[in-house]
Amino acid sequence: MLSSIITISLGAILINNFIFSQFLGCCPFLGCSNKVDTAVGMGLAVVFVMGLASAICWVINEYILVALGLEFLQTLAFILVIAALVQFVEMFLKKSVPSLYSALGIYLPLITTNCAVLGVVLLNVQNKYNFIESLVYGVTGGLGFMLAIVLFASVRERVEFADYPECFQGFAICLVSAALVALAFMGFSGMSIPV
Amino acid sequence: MNIKKQFKEGLITNNPVLVQQIGMCATMAITTTLFNGIGMGLSVLIILTCCNVVISAIRKIIPDEIRLAIFVVVIATFVTIVDLLLQAFVPALSEALGVFIPLIVVNCIIIGRAEAFCQKMPIGPSFFDGVFQGLGYTCVLIIMCVVRELLGAGRFGGGLIDVANGFRLTLDGTGGGIQIFPETYGASILSLPFGGFLTLGCLMAVMQYALKKSAKKKEAAEKAAAEIEKEVEE
Amino acid sequence: MNKILKLTLVLFLVCAIAAGALGVVNELTYRRIDAQQQAKTVEAFSAVMKADGYEEVGFDSAAFPTVNSVNHATNDAGYVVTSTFSGAQGNITLAVGVDNDYKCTGISVIEHSETSGLGANAASTGEVGVKFRAQFVGEDENIALSKSGGSIDALTGATITSRAITGAVAESIRVVKSLG
C-alpha cells in the first residue's frame, strides 16, 4: 500500500507531471503565471480542488455510476460535480476564510474549466485506483501542477526583461520558454521506483 | 454578419488557437501523427457545431443564472456521444486520443464560443461559427502534426496513409505513412512534450508576424490613398 | 424561493434530457464496444500463443503485483500472461505467451500511451515493431537488453519503454514458473 502511494506521488509530481508530460491544465498554466504570487495562489487552489474532486468523484463513480451500470454518464457527472464543488468551495471560503478567498479570488471559478481537474478524475477511473490512491493521485497531481506553475512563473519574470524578436511577444515566447522547462522535466521521464 | 467574414475570422483573424489562444492542451498533446490531428480536429468540429446550434436554439429559454451549468451539460452530452461513437466505430482513434476525447468538455473553445457568440446569435450564424471555428482549430492541428511528424520522424501522414499495402487511406491507425527521410535522422525530441510547446510557440510567432505585416500593409495602402486624395484636392 | 425552484426544475429537465439521449446512444453502441474490446484481447492472445480457448487460473497476486491475469491455453501449449506496468509515458498492458519450458512464445501490446514514433513502435505493425517483438521469442527469465549484457536490442530512442517491456516479459515467465 505504502509503496504504491509513493509510486503514485512521485509519478504525479515529477515523472508524469500533469503539465510537462501530460499536457493537462495548460490554459491556466500559461494564463496565471505572470507573477510568482499569483502562480502560488492558483497552484494552491488547484491542489485543493483536485484532491476534493478526486475523493468525491471516486465515491460517486463507485457507488452510483458503477453500481447502477451507468458508466457512460461519467463525463457528464464528473464535470457537474466539479462545477458544483468549485462553487461550493468559493462560498465556503468567502464566509469562513475570507483572507484565503481574497488571495485565490478570481482563480477559483477558472478551475472548473481546468482540464487537469477533470483529467485527474478520469485518469483515476482509467487506472482503477482505489479511494486512497485516487485521493493521493489528486493531491500530488495538484502539487505537480503547482510546482510547474511556480517554477515557470519565476522563469517568465526573467523573460520579461529579455531581448527577443517582436513577433514572439505574448504567448509565443511563453510557449518557447515552457518548452525549455519541459526539457528539464524530461530528465525525470521513465524513472521507475522499484515496488 | 456574413458567412465570408465568419470564415476568415475562424481560420485566420480570430483563429481559436493562434489568436484567441484557447484550447491549447490538446493542441500540444495529441499532434504527433496526422491521424490523431485530423481525428481530434473533426471531433471538435462536430461537437462545437452541435453545441452551437443547440445552445443558440435554447438561448431564450435558459435562465441567465444557470446558463453556464446548462452549457456544460449540453457540451458534456455531445462529447460523450462522440466518445461512444468513436469507441464503437473507430476504436484506433479513441485509443490514440485516450483521455483527450472526454476532456473536450473543458476545452475552452466550446464554452468560449457558447458564451461569446451563440447565446446572442440566431441558429444560422451559430452553425457557421461552429463549422469555421472548428475548421480553424483543425487547420492548426494539421499544421502542428505535419511539422512535428516530418521533423521528428521524417514521415508524413502517419496512421492515415498506408504505403506498404498499396497507396491507400486507412481508418484503423495502422498505416505507416510516407517516409520522406530515414527516421533515425529525425529530431525525435519534437515528438516529445518539448516539441509540442516549441512548435506551437513558433507557429504563434509566425502568425503574429503575418498579421502585423498585413496590418502594416493595409495602413500603408490607406496612407497612400489618403495622400493621393490630398494631391487631387490640391 | 419560487425562483430557485424554477431554476432547479430547468436544470433538472436539461440533465434528464441529456441523460436520456446518452442512454439511447449507449444502448446503440455498447455491444459493438464490448465486442471490439473482446476481439482485441483474443487477437492479442492468439498472436502470442495459438489455442482454441484460454482459461484464467489463479496466481499469487501479492508476489506479482503487475500481473493482471494468467490464462492457461486449452490445448496445453502453455500460458498467456497479461500485465500492466509503467512505461515511459504511462501504463503499458502487455500479453506474453509462455510455453511449458518457460520460454517466451511471443509478446503483444494491448494498450499503451508511449510516444508516437518512439516507444509506440513497440506496438506498431510496421517493420520496426515486428522486428522488436520477434526478438523476445524463445527467451527465458534471464532476458535483458543488449546494453545490460542480454540479447534484446532496444528500440531507437526508447530505451525506457524497451526496458519496461523486457522486465515485464521476465516477470511473466516467473509468474508461470511459480505455478509449478
Features:
heterotrimer, B: 234 residues, mainly alpha, two-stranded antiparallel sheet, 8 helices, C: 180 residues, alpha+beta, 5-stranded antiparallel β-sheet, elongated
Helix-strand layout with pairing:
The complex is a heterotrimer of chains A (195), B (234) and C (180).
Chain A (H helix, E strand, L loop, with lengths): L1 H14 L10 H6 L4 H33 L5 H23 L1 H7 L2 H4 L4 H12 L4 H29 L11 H15 L10
Chain B lengths: L2 H11 L10 H6 L4 H24 L9 H23 L1 H7 L10 H11 L4 H31 L1 E2 L4 E2 L5 E2 L8 E2 L13 H41 L1
Antiparallel strand pairs in B: 1-4, 2-3
Helix pairs in contact in B: 1-7, 3-4, 3-6, 3-7, 4-5, 4-6, 6-7
Chain C lengths: L1 H47 L5 E4 L9 E7 L4 E9 L4 E9 L4 E8 L15 H8 L24 H21 L1
Antiparallel strand pairs in C: 1-2, 2-3, 3-4, 4-5
Question: Could you give a quick summary of the protein structure above?
Answer:
The complex is a heterotrimer of chains A (195), B (234) and C (180). Chain A has 195 residues and is an all-alpha fold. Helices cover 73% and strands 0% of the residues of chain A.
What's the number of helices of chain C?
3
What's the rounded overall pLDDT mean of chain B? 85
Number of helices of chain B: 8
Q: What sequence of helices (H) and strands (E) makes up the elements of chain C?
A: HEEEEEHH
Could you explain how this protein is built, in words?
The complex is a heterotrimer of chains A (195), B (234) and C (180). Chain A has 195 residues and is mainly alpha-helical. Chain A has helices at 2-15, 26-31, 36-68, 74-96, 98-104, 107-110, 115-126, 131-159, 171-185. Helices cover 73% and strands 0% of the residues of chain A. In chain A, helix 3 (36-68) runs antiparallel to helix 8 (131-159) and helix 4 crosses helix 7. The longest helix of chain A is centred in the first third of the chain and has 33 residues, at 36-68. Chain A is globular. Chain A starts with a helix and ends in a 10-residue tail after the last helix. The mean pLDDT of chain A is 85. The mean pLDDT of chain B is 85. Chain B is mainly alpha-helical and 234 residues long. In chain B, the strands form 2 sheets. A two-stranded antiparallel ribbon of chain B has the order 1-4. Chain B has one domain. In chain B, helix 6 runs antiparallel to helix 7 (123-153). The longest helix of chain B is centred in the last third of the chain and has 41 residues, at 193-233. Chain B contains 8 helices and 4 strands; from the N terminus they run H-H-H-H-H-H-H-E-E-E-E-H. The radius of gyration of chain C is 22 Å and the shape is elongated. With 180 residues, chain C is an alpha+beta fold. The longest helix of chain C has 47 residues, at 2-48. A 5-stranded antiparallel sheet of chain C has the order 1-2-3-4-5, sandwiched between helices. Chains in contact: A-B, A-C, B-C. Chains A and B meet through helix 2, helix 4, helix 7 and helix 9 of A and helix 2, helix 4 and helix 8 of B.
